[in-house]
Amino acid sequence: xxxxxxxxxxxxxxxxxxxxxxxxxxxxxxxxxxxxxxxxxxxxxxxxxxxxxxxxxxxxxxxxxxxxxxxxxxxxxxxxxxxxxxxxxxxxxxxxxxxxxxxxxxxxxxxxxxxxxxxxxxxxxxxxxxxxxxxxxxxxxxxxxxxxxxxxxxxxxxxxxxxxxxxxxxxxxxxxxxxxxxxxxxxxxxxxxxxxxxxxxxxxxxxxxxxxxxxxxxxxxxxxxxxxxxxxxxxxxxxxxxxxxxxxxxxxxxxxxxxxxxxxxxxxxxxxxxxxxxxxxxxxxxxxxxxxxxxxxxxxxxxxxxxxxxxxxxxxxxxxxxxxxxxxxxxxxxxxxxxxxxxxxxxxxxxxxxxxxxxxxxxxxxxxxxxxxxx
Length: 375
Hints:
This protein has 375 residues and is an all-alpha fold. Helix content is 69%, strand content 0%.
């Protein structure tokens, strides 16, 4: 049963973002085997810029958590409210994270026992020193020398870090007037600009190194965007179907051409605002059961992708090594990728209903003893 303050138009956007990130990763891994991109970057950058939908997640996370939890920290922070908030976020992230980590442990074991040649080539992806880092959700804290095990989980590490300071962000930024929100917006964009400048790829595609700062800036912007939503600024215009369509087209054009990644972030913010305000045809489209369902299982889609991406990379690489000079055509690769995407979604549906939600509900029923209580 969804709460009365549930913004259903935002749910499908999570599913779209998750699938876009998955397709981006398949494109990148295809090039890791020495083949060309699935979609030529000379034609369009839309797929090549797919990593930016992680930024969309960070922005949306700040918006949604402001909507759900912001009022609890608007006037102050106490031990009980902070504890309950962090436990709710932990129970949301950790069960599926551990399950996905275990699937990669199984893959590593199978490679060691049955495919020693493949293991020798890909063992760096399963470095033992990466296990404690994953267990403590510290992949994006500068403690991991490279992306290992369930690679996409670096962003979950970044989110968890920001969750721990987000009560302070809510206290100082949620529905606040004056200069403070605008100063924080400038600081956030400065951080994003610095990431693009110092990143060797000159993009926002920063993970285990700058990932925590990337998430902080965009989560903060998400809170500020929610403030604008609450104020109803330009609501009459933003609520129109045409506004959503135009802003989406502008965003797609920005992804299509090679512009600075930072310019895409305001476009994402406007997409969230127009979708949240909309009660017209866009809302009806977002209410489609399949669209809602893909959004509901988006976390599982995102986390389960690591398993299928690893198998794709290792399988394709081994196939090419065994058949030197034979290159699969683009339609064969696209068919394989779309098949794996379907398997990804099916496995995500299973993990959502059998791992993510049941364990989350069990953890949230745990009662804490009130050892300390700060008012």
